[in-house]
Specification:
It contains five helices and no strands. It has helices spanning 2-16, 21-28, 34-59, 73-81, 96-101.
Length: 103
C-alpha cells in the first residue's frame, strides 16, 4: 500500500511539476525545413551586406539617413517567415528584412 502511494505521488509530481528553463526552451522549438532555413539564412546574410553598404554610404554623406538593423535581423526574418501571403505588415524603420523574407 505504501509503495502505491509513493508511485501515485511520483506520477502526479511529474504531471504537475514546473518545467525547468531548459525543458521550456526545448519544448518551444519547432522544425523548419532545410529549404526554409537556407532561405532565412540567405536573407540574413543579404541584409547584413546591405546594412554595411548603406551604413558606409551614410558615413560618406552619399545618403542622408539610414538606421542599421544589427542584432535585429534574425528575429525580424523569423517573424516574417511565420506569416502567410494573406497577412498584412506595416513596416517601420529597420524592418527591411521583413520585406525581404516576405517575397
Amino acid at each position: 500500500m505504501e509503495m502505491e502511494k509513493r508511485q501515485l505521488f511520483l506520477r502526479s509530481y511529474q504531471f504537475c511539476r514546473k518545467k525547468s528553463v531548459a525543458e521550456r526552451i526545448k519544448g518551444s522549438f519547432f522544425r523548419v525545413s532545410k529549404d526554409d532555413a537556407l532561405k532565412m539564412y540567405s536573407s540574413m546574410v543579404t541584409l547584413q551586406t546591405m546594412d554595411n553598404i548603406f551604413y558606409e554610404a551614410q558615413r560618406q554623406e552619399r545618403m542622408s539617413f539610414y538606421l542599421t538593423s544589427y542584432g535585429e535581423d534574425a528575429i525580424n526574418i523569423a517573424s516574417a517567415a511565420a506569416l502567410t501571403q494573406d497577412n498584412i505588415i506595416l513596416l517601420e524603420i529597420r524592418m527591411m528584412d521583413s520585406e525581404m523574407e516576405g517575397e
